[in-house]
UniProtKB/TrEMBL annotation:
Protein name per Swiss-Prot or TrEMBL: Reverse transcriptase Ty1/copia-type domain-containing protein
InterPro entries: DNA/RNA_pol_sf, RVT_2
Pfam annotation, one family: RVT_2
PANTHER family: GAG-POL-RELATED RETROTRANSPOSON (PTHR11439), REVERSE TRANSCRIPTASE TY1_COPIA-TYPE DOMAIN-CONTAINING PROTEIN (PTHR11439:SF463)
Domain Reverse transcriptase Ty1/copia-type residues, every copy: 178-402
Length: 699
């Protein structure tokens, strides 16, 4: 599923990271010290033991099936317990790179596991999935078929081989592999698909056996913010939205790596033969980058240009035949998932299908995208808009949570029967002094937070603040924190249904709330930086708004404030933030200025992205805040800053106003939707704000 893929590979900002599956191999380089070299004698005659991990590397298999060689020094910091256990299991714990720390770490493992930040070991040793036994080898798969009296696993293997045979060039008997090629193993991995419990087999190459390619191996994906903007523009310009999924995506791309293998038993009569790998087989280090380059070549052949603000968004100027209106057609790529926005989107997908075969049942109107249900809806004002509903993902997450609690805690933990709000009344996680969780429970707490962070990404803005607060305790969670996370899951169980609508209609902006002043005396003739290489603006223009707020000294332990803001393109929310501020502000004034500067910088980046997408951005962005002192200081040139510690934020926002990039105006606190993202709210106040952001949640 695309949601699972994005969760495993990207953080909320779109940056790629990997989740560890298993440590599978190790190697020692020439610069690794020996046992005799470890003991060194000083000039005074005393000896000491050198403590270094230099020269050692561990091969890591990641959740997505890929493998990489990582330095021992890095794994010692990120996954100390797993690395120590690997060293003991493989009897290398006596080596100089391990003998000075492994025993200590294993002795203190429970305490260390609770304290290590960003522990990403989500791998669990399982033999079953959804109650169905999962094989590890081809022989086990065929044995299970015989045991069950069916051919489900054999059919999955045959289907995979039919698709991947094109990736192998089988050499004649007796012919050696080409000079300069590396030998790697290949093996089958097996899985159960959640949608229909279908058996899935995937042939994976042992890319960890190859040296790192000289060319880049990184492959990016389209950001969620770009997807929200594109859906808003589609409705605004009355364009079609269609999706498609590339069939056996990686196999369609040639590779530059020189590798060969011995075919396994799954190849039947070809088993044991030598074959050169000529396509981007899963597991190869360059496979992702090779497919992206192949896809990019297809996009360029179709006349599309990569957007410089998001390289996985492709745009092309088009003219709508029925009214002659010029606009930009967009193609958004997330690995092999393609979303097309065009006045005749099926025609574009047909052209793509000639380059890259698409799965027949995936082509057409969008259903699930980014892990949420995507469909058009008609608003009360008659406008048609696209909406994301994460209800299915939320329901499945709640179901998985209840199953886990039932199977592992014997009644110790459970979801609350009634949860009107995400948090219990007056609960303050930073002051929680309950018993620290053990390593197993701490890992599950992190898993829950990861799942809920993804819910926030796909539309559950109503739990953003609570999830952000609990995320501050990932390193050392307590029983109360786990109970609070389960309380959020109980709230989601009761209120799973919601829609985030990307309303393209223009907002009613009261210009009287904003002042026009002459700023030249203070900042000179400053002007907004317009990208010189932006494409010609086409289609309808958009209005940008920001609602921003802060909760001064809201953290009772550190007294740090919290920033919260919502960014609108017309009436569509395309970005939101609830984040603890990095500095301690001594006043409400300072906290509000820090929050506004953060929001202003986000708006500046969004204005750049829209211009690089060819969207007309003709006016300033409108920033709404509920602190009158901050608004006066950013509206009136003659205002004097009395607190010099706020001078950076003060001048950054004022200069933005002076250049015409934005305007600031006051909004009543009860009308400021960003209030939901700064503090934990309860009752009718919270309910009113949530209803203004999400549809259907209280129906």
């Amino acid at each position: 599923m695309i949601a699972q893929a994005m969760y495993e590979q990207c953080d909320p900002d779109g940056n790629q990271y990997m989740l560890l599956d298993q440590l599978v191999d190790h190697r020692k380089k020439d610069n690794a010290i020996s046992l005799t070299e470890q003991t060194v004698q000083r000039d005074n005659g005393r000896t000491y033991r050198r403590k270094t991990t230099a020269g050692w590397q561990i091969c890591c298999r990641w959740i997505d099936g890929s493998t990489t060689w990582e330095n021992l020094s890095d794994l010692k910091e990120s996954h100390p317990i797993e690395t120590a256990e690997y060293a003991v299991t493989h009897k290398i714990d006596h080596e100089p790179a391990f003998n000075w720390w492994v025993k200590h770490f294993l002795k203190k493992r429970d305490r260390i596991i609770s304290l290590v930040k960003r522990r990403n070991t989500r791998y669990l040793k399982r033999t079953h999935k959804f109650g169905i036994e999962v094989p590890k080898t081809v022989a086990e798969a065929l044995a299970l078929d015989r045991k069950n009296g069916n051919t489900l696993w054999a059919d999955a293997i045959a289907k995979e081989l039919k698709n991947v045979r094109v990736a192998f060039k089988i050499l004649p008997d007796g012919q050696p592999a080409p000079v300069g090629h590396q030998k790697i193993p290949c093996h089958m991995v097996f899985d159960i698909k959640m949608e229909d419990f279908r058996r899935k087999a995937r042939l994976v190459a042992g890319g960890h056996k190859t040296d790192a390619p000289a060319t880049i191996t990184y492959a990016s994906v389209v950001s969620r913010e770009t997807v929200r903007i594109a859906l808003t523009l589609a409705a605004l310009n009355d364009l079609e939205v269609k999706t498609g999924d590339v069939l056996n995506a990686y196999i369609t791309a040639p590779i530059t790596e020189k590798v060969w293998t011995i075919l396994g038993p799954e190849f039947g009569e070809d088993a044991g033969k030598t074959a050169v790998i000529v396509r981007a087989l899963y597991g190869l280090k360059s496979a992702g980058a090779a497919f992206r380059a192949h896809l990019a070549s297809c996009m360029r052949d179709l006349g599309y240009t990569s957007c410089k603000a998001d390289p996985d968004l492709w745009l092309k100027p088009e003219t709508r035949p029925d009214d002659g209106v010029r606009y930009y057609s967009y193609i958004l790529c997330y690995v092999d998932d393609i979303l097309c926005i065009h006045h005749d989107a099926m025609k574009v997908l047909d052209k793509i299908n000639k380059y890259l075969p698409l799965k027949p049942d995936s082509v057409g109107d969008p259903d699930m995208y980014l892990g949420a249900k995507l469909r058009q809806t008609q608003l009360p004002n008659g406008v048609w808009a696209w909406a994301l509903s994460p209800s299915k993902y939320v329901n499945q997450a709640v179901k998985n949570c209840e199953t886990h609690l039932k199977d592992n805690y014997d009644g110790k933990y459970s979801l609350p029967r009634k949860a009107e709000n995400p948090f219990r009344m007056d609960y303050e996680p930073e002051l929680d002094d309950s018993t620290p969780l053990d390593s197993k429970d701490a890992s599950y707490f992190q898993t829950l937070i990861g799942v809920m962070r993804w819910m926030v990404e796909i539309g559950r803005i109503d739990i953003a603040t609570e999830v952000s607060i609990l995320s501050s305790h990932l390193a050392y969670p307590r029983e109360g924190h786990l109970d609070a996370a389960l309380h959020i899951m109980g709230y989601l169980k009761a209120k799973h249904n919601s829609r985030l609508v990307f309303d393209p209609s223009y907002p009613d902006i009261d210009e009287t709330k904003f002042m026009d002043c002459d700023w030249k005396e203070f900042y000179g003739d400053v002007k907004e930086a317009i990208p010189h290489d932006a494409p010609e603006p086409l289609g309808k223009d958009v209005d940008l708004r920001l609602m921003v707020d802060s909760d001064h000294a809201g953290d009772k332990l550190t007294r740090r404030s919290r920033t919260g803001f919502l960014i609108f393109v017309n009436n569509a929310i395309v970005d939101w933030v609830s984040k603890k501020q990095p500095t301690i502000e001594s006043s409400v004034f300072g906290a509000e200025f820090v929050a506004m500067k953060h929001g202003m910088e986000k708006l500046r980046g969004l204005r750049y992205k829209l211009r690089m997408m060819g969207v007309p951005v003709v006016g300033p962005s409108y920033i709404f805040g509920d602190n009158m002192s901050v608004i006066n200081n950013t509206q009136r040139p003659e205002s004097v800053l009395k607190k010099k510690n706020n001078s950076i934020c003060y001048h950054a926002i004022r200069e933005s106003v002076a250049m015409g990039e934005c305007k600031t105006g006051h909004i009543k606190t009860e009308d400021n939707l960003a209030d939901l993202l700064t503090k934990v709210l309860y009752g009718s106040r919270r309910r009113r704000l949530v209803k203004d952001i999400l549809m259907d949640i209280f129906d």
